[in-house]
Amino acid sequence: MTDGWKIKVTVEGQPARLYAAAESDPRLALVLAQKALGASLPRDRLETAGQISAQTLEKFGIKSGEIKDVTESSAHL
Length: 77
Fold this sequence. Notes:
The chain is α+β, with helices and mostly antiparallel strands.
């Protein structure tokens, strides 16, 4: 497994959410998040918020090419 990226998603009028994307390229991680979440740009704002180790992705059960909402667990990232 490769490292991944934290993706911060901000939708107008809602609290920001944090996702973990198991994709090593930050641009592809953003595309993965946009597709998985059905995000509508520019209304929805997606940005990388730092890298995540392969060990952390494994701990959260996130496999290559997957994305998961980790907002509630973000203190452990």
